[in-house]
Recover the amino acids of this structure.
């Protein structure tokens, strides 16, 4: 999480706790509109922190830090060291999680490749054929129309055109390498399941909702190869 975003969340939390009288017992009454706003902001800030992999906080230290700032008391840390500490903490946390993701992905793919029906390409991409197609196969520069359902190894769905109810249209060489390679193996009308190593997905950096070094699973249906000049609707 970016430091600026983190500090905005902390500032928001400070306002919330100030409005609630710093009540951390979970018994704050929701009576007025201000109460409702305070509680809603508290839930929103907590969810944002959890999305950044913050699962636990020392509430007393958290509140004390905010109170010292709002009441203009001497801080218990060197002010110049606070942002570097936060930055280094999140960097370390991301690196540790990325290493764990890498190891989990490697174990999963190593076991998965031994299963019946799984084909592994030279790049390490794994796939199984759910339904064969009868049309043409695309090349990397083709624009295609697909339905897809993307999940993490634990089954968590992170994106799905099926759930959105509208197929996606894109040029093959503008998506993750696993898709660029995999869809060229398909024919129109085919449906494949891809098991994509992290290096063929979003790599070490990850993306907005994908952590670094995460292996991904996609069910993809190649509906149609579109003419180059045809634009998405």
């Amino acid at each position: 999480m970016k430091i600026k975003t983190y500090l905005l969340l902390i500032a928001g939390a400070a306002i919330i706790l100030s409005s609630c009288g710093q009540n951390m017992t979970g018994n704050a009454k929701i009576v007025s509109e201000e109460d409702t706003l305070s509680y809603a902001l508290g839930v929103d800030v907590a969810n944002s922190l959890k999305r950044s992999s913050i699962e636990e906080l020392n509430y007393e230290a958290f509140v004390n830090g905010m109170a010292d700032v709002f009441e203009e008391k001497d801080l218990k840390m060197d002010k110049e060291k606070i942002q570097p500490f936060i930055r280094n903490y999140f960097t370390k946390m991301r690196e540790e999680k990325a290493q764990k993701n890498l190891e989990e992905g490697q174990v999963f793919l190593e076991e998965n490749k031994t299963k019946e029906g799984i084909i592994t390409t030279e790049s390490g991409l794994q796939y199984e054929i759910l339904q064969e197609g009868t049309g043409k196969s695309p090349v990397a520069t083709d624009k295609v129309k697909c339905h897809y359902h993307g999940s993490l190894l634990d089954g968590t769905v992170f994106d799905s055109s099926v759930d959105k109810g509208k197929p996606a249209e894109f040029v093959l060489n503008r998506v993750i390498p696993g898709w660029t390679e995999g869809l060229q193996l398909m024919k129109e009308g085919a449906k494949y399941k891809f098991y994509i190593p992290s290096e063929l997905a979003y790599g070490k950096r990850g993306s907005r909702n994908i952590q670094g070094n995460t292996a991904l699973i996609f069910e993809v249906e190649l509906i149609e190869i579109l003419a180059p000049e045809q634009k998405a609707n």
Remarks:
- The chain has two domains: 3-76, 100-226.
- Confidence is low (pLDDT under 50) at residues 1-8, 14-25.
- The two ends are 34 Å apart (CA to CA).
- The longest helix spans residues 79-112.
